[in-house]
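Figure S7 source data.
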Amino acid sequence: MDRDLVATPTLGPAERTTSLHDLMMAQVQDLYAAEKDTVQVLAELARAASNPQLAYLFRLHGSETREHILRLKRVLDGQDTRPTPLRNRGKRGLLEDCIELASDQTLEPSVRDAALIAVAQHLEHDEIASYESVCTWAGVLGLHDMAGQLALSMADERRAESRLKRLGESMQARPQRVHTTT
Ligand SMILES: [Fe+2]
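Tokens for the predicted fe (ii) ion complex:
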């Protein structure tokens, strides 16, 4: 990621939107840019994970994310909209948190896995919220095919978040059993 873009506002004075369609496409541009960065971030999370199941979930979602990128590019092309660098500071911050955590060697492995799950869940929640907005606006604007396509990606994000949540819960259950039986 280009850190020079960190301070760039999402919708600054120079890029005020003039319509719901503009607002929607600005969101699609940020989703596209964020998903492209997310593929790299998920690969780093997979390398950093100690739990093999967690590493698998990160790789699995990386594959899904590549499909999301293709869908978003088709949407951009269909609306004659060019891709842009990632402008949304919230999304950029979440991605940077993931990278920072993945490279942190000071944490005990199981604790780091728990932290990786937490930060990845934050990332998924943000993506879900963005897809929800875009799908709603596309429906309002009568772009039902676009809404349907992006709803597929949104469903993947929800499944990915749910898998992480379940694995996190099962991982947290293990040390508690050890402590209560010794
Ligand atoms: Fe995702």
